[in-house]
Amino acid sequence: MSPLILKLILHSAWQTLEMVVASTALSVILGLPLALFMIATGPQGLYRLPFAARLMGMVVDAVRAVPFIILLVLLIPVTRFIAGTSLGTEAAIVPLSIAGIPYFARIAEMALREVDSGLVDAVRAMGGTRMTIIRSVLIAEALPGLVTGVTVTLITMVGASAMAGVIGAGGLGDLAIRYGYQRFNTTVMFGVVVVLIIMVSLMQVIGNSLARWLKH
Amino acid sequence: MNPILDIQHVTHSFGQHTALQDISFSVKQGEVVGLIGRSGAGKSTLLRCLCALERPQQGHILLDGVDLTTQPERQLVRIRRRIGLVFQHFNLLTSRTVAGNIALPLQIAGCPRREQAGRIAELLELVGLKGFEKKYPSQLSGGQKQRVGIARALAANPTLLLCDEATSALDPESTNSILNLLADINRKLGLTIVLITHEMEVVRRFAQRILVLDHGRLVEDGTLLDFLRDGQNNRTLQTLLADIRPSLPAFLGETLVSTPPQGHHRAIIRIVLSGNGASEPLFSALYEKFGVQTALLQGGVTTISERLSGDMILSFEGDRTEQALDHLKTAAQNMEILGYVPSHP
Ligand SMILES: Nc1ncnc2c1ncn2[C@@H]1O[C@H](COP(=O)(O)OP(=O)(O)O)[C@@H](O)[C@H]1O
Ligand SMILES: [Mg+2]
């Protein structure tokens, strides 16, 4: 493998990491409140608003129903509005996050739903406010599940970012298509696959041990 | 003295199903009340009303004179801080250590951080878990988890402690130690305790008063001794009592006749004694006075509400059995002739 190819792969890996980390961070920051909203307004929730819960569920499912490659194209005007351009690595973070937010919200919702309602009762009976219940019970108890959700989202974003080459975002996926598929450079293709496997495995191992450590 | 808890005509239903119907009773400061009934009788629902987790549809619940049923949610949040609740499945936060769990009600009550550690150590000492601060609930046995649950319930100095099947998930040994702990707390702190259970054995030893709930209605209110003395109890109570009362062995029951047979026979009686009667040399007195020979078939002397009480099935044999029985009637709280069996000398 020539130093040039190696440099190309490392550069693309960096672009992929940039997209994946930034979009996962945004998905968690915005998806978690969304999940809490759906749980809290749901039928057993702390602020029962069944209509709002159902509406939010529908919006979340609608975004998730659109295949990412289509979402990428559909969102070009939105991307241009938010990022100032519709091309490049930074611009790709916009559609990746918009796909990631409802994805993580559903995973987080499941993790939050797993929390024993007896614990909510216990803290309510102690005179805990709803904010205390959300912080000390729902989020604290669901934390291992939420961490697993972050891991899954990270890995999903690695896959989705490969398609972001369509809007000139670069990254490993884009590199593999341009050199490996269009120019029959199997060395680059092979190198990209190895780097992807290492990247995903590392995410999984770190995520798993963090979740296990949090589980006591 | 005003009751600490006064429940007036509480009715509550879930949809079509009436879980509580016209419940009224009051609890005095320092009293230990056992609330007993079969599964589905409405015990937990009543308890949830008492700790303001559920608002009954009708009636009033006065805690220290404050009506919980009319308070806005904002006030209820404050009122709940004065009620300790102990759960069947402990409901400890798995994400927090033992100290963290006990600290939560202190944090909620706004106790300064400096004072928390001292209070936690004090509570752990009280429940017999000294030095367990840094352990996680997953590292504890069921009995230990419940001790943490009790420490947590006591953390914010509640005026009332409510226990919902606090020992139902525990083995007999842990059940025993948890009940001793609760009795101890009642004695030491003078804390009012309402204890829910479906097991008579749990309330036998230290509930000063027992309420029986059946299909959402309060069907009995009295002491265990009252119930044993009256004999004429509600069916639910009878089945609950059967768990802790001696019963005639089946092989004896089969040979039992209702009138004294010709020739040698023995009278089989059930007797309830309490206080002094339970500790007096009863059998030797019967022999000296009436020449009646007594045999203990079932039962014995146990502790009810921290007093000695006898609940036993005896057999009497002798020529002056009738006089002996008359004598016993005055000494015993309750005496019942179950029947007679022929004896073969
Ligand atoms: N949240 C609820 N929704 C509907 N029905 C309920 C609810 N809680 C309790 N019930 C019903 O009320 C009755 C009494 O329940 P509960 O108070 O839990 O009984 P216990 O604690 O004596 O076993 C049961 O028939 C139960 O099915
Ligand atoms: Mg119950």
UniProtKB/TrEMBL annotation, chain A:
- ABC transmembrane type-1 domain residues are 13-207
Cell compartments where the protein resides: Cell membrane
Q: Does the keyword Cell membrane apply?
A: yes
UniProt keywords (A-Z) are: Cell membrane, Membrane, Transmembrane, Transmembrane helix, Transport
Q: Where are the transmembrane segments?
A: 20-39, 51-76, 138-167, 187-206
Q: How does it sit in the membrane?
A: Multi-pass membrane protein
A Pfam match is BPD_transp_1
Family membership noted in the UniProt record: Belongs to the binding-protein-dependent transport system permease family.
Q: Which PANTHER family does this entry report, sorted A to Z? A: ABC TRANSPORTER PERMEASE, D-METHIONINE TRANSPORT SYSTEM PERMEASE PROTEIN METI-RELATED
Q: Provide the protein name.
A: ABC transporter permease
What organism is listed for this UniProt entry? Bombella dulcis
TrEMBL record, chain B:
* Coiled-coil region list: none
Q: Which Gene3D superfamilies match?
A: 3.30.70.260, P-loop containing nucleotide triphosphate hydrolases
What keywords are annotated for this sequence in UniProt? Amino-acid transport, ATP-binding, Cell membrane, Membrane, Nucleotide-binding, Translocase, Transport
Q: Does the keyword Metal-binding apply?
A: no
Give a Pfam family name.
NIL
Gene Ontology molecular-function annotations? ATP binding
- Domain ABC transporter residues, every copy: 5-240
Q: Does the keyword Nucleotide-binding apply?
A: yes
User: InterPro entries per the record?
Assistant: AAA+_ATPase (IPR003593), ABC_transporter-like_ATP-bd (IPR003439), ABC_transporter-like_CS (IPR017871), ACT-like_dom_sf (IPR045865), MetN_ABC (IPR041701), MetN_ABC_transporter-like (IPR050086), NIL_domain (IPR018449), P-loop_NTPase (IPR027417)
- PANTHER family (alphabetical): AMINO ACID IMPORT ATP-BINDING PROTEIN, METHIONINE IMPORT ATP-BINDING PROTEIN METN
Name of the protein described by the UniProt record? ATP-binding cassette domain-containing protein
Organism listed in the record:
Bombella dulcis
